[in-house]
Write a structure and sequence with these properties.
The chain has 250 residues and is mainly β. 6% of the residues lie in helices and 25% in strands. It has one domain: Distorted Sandwich (Coagulation Factor XIII, Chain A, domain 1), CATH 2.70.50. The protein has 1 helix and 12 strands; from the N terminus they run αββββββββββββ. Strands 3, 4, 6, 7, 9, 10, 11 and 12 form an 8-stranded mixed beta sheet that branches.
């Protein structure tokens, strides 16, 4: 019995350090878990995707890096939330977890050719939000990062976004092991229908999984030895009709 308790105590911190997004929040109103957020078929759904892993189903060079392993199998049973352009949204972690890894948060969107619940995410993606370091005077291995110990990523849908159905891809990247090629990726997809939008032209755009490369400086970065500027991955942030960049904490 004592051995069992010791093993459980040793595993618990590792499990609690991993997490998954499952809840969409619209202008402060929290929806039900997985009501509008696709689930996944990862054996332990809170485990991240890593660059360094010999298992083929855990490498980012796969279609599942768009919305997570097996997520498209849940698309048809996942609702599509109506969201007004300009709304404040958040994607919240499940089971009371918080982001206990240092690293940036990013949010991408991709317009579906028809409906979000039939879209695999193989089209173009644009970034609408990113955040990295909020206080470079704090511990760079923990509290310096904007996301540290938070249970959600909060962002605003650009008011100029054209109407239509979209996937939203929130992502948190744990960089505590990035110095050894072991960045951790936590991500999913929410399904939304944008209304009351504008005539903006989102961009620049990328495709997943090819948007990220194994040798990107973002994923080969050390948090040890004090503060240093983090090189954000992916394209510039699109905030409206024209292309712009927003690097928080730079």
């Amino acid at each position: 019995m004592k051995l069992c308790l010791l093993v459980t105590a040793a595993i618990a911190p590792l499990v609690s350090a991993h997490y998954f997004f499952d809840t969409l929040i619209i202008d402060g109103q929290e929806t039900s878990p997985n009501q509008y957020v696709r689930s996944n078929t990862r054996p332990a759904k809170y485990n991240p995707t890593k660059w360094v892993n010999i298992r083929d189903d855990m490498t980012p060079d796969m279609a599942d890096f768009r919305c997570n392993k097996g997520a498209f199998t849940f698309a048809g049973q996942t609702g599509t939330a109506e969201v007004k352009a300009g709304s404040k949204l958040a994607l919240k972690l499940g089971v009371g977890a918080t982001m206990k890894h240092p690293g940036p948060a990013l949010v991408y969107m991709s317009k579906a050719p028809s409906t979000a619940n039939t879209y695999e995410g193989d089209g173009e993606w644009f970034k609408i939000h990113e955040e990295a370091v909020c206080d470079k005077n704090k511990d760079f291995t923990s509290e310096a990062w904007c996301t540290w110990d938070k249970d959600r990523i909060e962002f605003t849908v650009p008011a100029d976004l054209p109407d239509g159905e979209y996937l939203i891809r929130p992502e948190h990247i744990g960089v505590h092991g990035a110095h050894d090629g072991q960045a951790e990726f936590y991500y999913t997809c929410a399904q939304v229908k944008i209304v009351g939008g504008g005539s903006g032209s989102p961009g620049p755009t990328v495709k997943f999984p090819s948007a990220y490369k194994k040798d990107d400086p973002s994923f080969n970065f050390s948090i040890y030895g004090g503060y240093k500027e983090y090189p954000m991955p992916g394209p510039k942030v699109w905030t409206g009709a024209s292309h712009s960049q927003c690097n928080i904490g730079a």
